[in-house]
């Protein structure tokens, strides 16, 4: 299957919505990583006093969303919609967080691409005139993901070198029609791409073609090239997938250069034994809410392309012999 | 917990999007029910030649979406976005259908409220100026749901009288900025409401307060009353939940009268042994795409309120002792 330019997948905002605030809450391992100091809060352990990992993940998402609201100083009842998603079956982290938030909920699912999908959709709701404020938040938790998707954590199964470590983290942004902050200027919504990768321990490879497809269409739609961006970050391909996405794009005539990296590569370092890097909805959301927003605010980055990447399979589809479809959703953030 | 009016949860469309076509595909039991003749296609069995129920469900959704496209006569590459969701873990029915459709995908999750959520969101994307055409489709399948949420079907577990029968069905509508057909004139997005119902065999009761909350806010926001609608259909509360929603609304001063019914009550009759009625994303989508659209087209119904209702729990949250949060999303359709 070759990558093809689809036509026009990109929407450009007439009045680009503002990122009024960003908040991130992570687990201890993420706090010990190279971006540790950029997160709003680091939990001391994976449970933070809750009775289960699942309850803890939902509370973490709630904390991130409340944090984004407080930081922006916007009264909660001025928020029109809450957009949220996560990896758990039937999205219980988001749904139970939404029960506490008491805001109109739009549940979204794009696996690890969900943060970018939420930022794209939230921007459309604001620029389309349907909302003044939209709260976007996503989460993942290493232990809820391990036991749902892989093996009981107590089993200590050896991990493949191409495997990625699911981040324990929740990130949130509050988007507004006006105010101070970087703006979301355009978004490219991805289509599902499947290059027949079946190895659930190599999801970076499964997602790489979809990320490449979205980037290719994004550049084509806006007549841009890699040099037009200070940073292009996928989230989360890991080291294996990042290299592969670069290779696929090169074959399509695009050299991504040195500005192309991945949130799943940034969040942990080599000493942390995560193999190919990190993954999970939480990963790109906390790297964006923390490090990327920090670099935009201090003036290091003027224009950023965030490409959320999702592996759209389930344990059931994998056991039934299906390959792993991927998706990439991109948003452009400008200082 | 009392129901409270939130402020303004309702968006009104300046140029109401048009429902250009609607398509429904159902299983044999649904075909034998009172609405059998209103569906676009009835499968002879639950597998339709596929190797698993999960693959069959995804194919059914694809068939419904392709059907909506063909019926409208719109070239597929003119469609800007595909909005889809289902009940399966990680929404594999939708994701694998989207792999075949090759359209930019926005994955949405609202359990059984997903069709109404998709119609609301799709209308915002069109009226907001981001799309000319949006394809919305959702599905559920009795056997994929039974083995994922309840017990192996082979076990033949006795069902509670308050339990609902998950519909095997997929419904789809193609929305357009202009053209012939009924229009979506407004939408009320719901917030999560939880009255502490814990019985997973009584989801109608768990969802009823959320439906009542959304209807209450809808009437308040638009200064309307039940008499302003020819039909108000929730989907899917079943008989137990429908009675309860009416009761909750009566306590809030609203008598819904005889125009209030439920898609889960309409689709099967007493002889079909479904106990409290039907449920599943597919139910309200095929009842809307079939019977309700038929009655609008022949001029029987001028203004309809469709209130999708979702139970936002998972087997994991239920096993952990959590109650079942509900949500209701409403759209108004006018001839």
Automatic annotation (TrEMBL), chains A, B:
One of its GO terms (molecular function) is acyltransferase activity. InterPro entries: SpoVAD, SpoVAD_sf, Thiolase-like. Coiled coil: none annotated. The keyword Glycosyltransferase does not apply. The chain crosses the membrane at residues 101-126. Gene3D superfamilies: Stage V sporulation protein AD. Keywords: Membrane, Transmembrane, Transmembrane helix. It holds the Pfam family SpoVAD. SUPFAM superfamilies: Thiolase-like. The keyword Lipoprotein does not apply. This is Stage V sporulation protein AD (SpoVAD). It comes from Desulfosporosinus metallidurans.
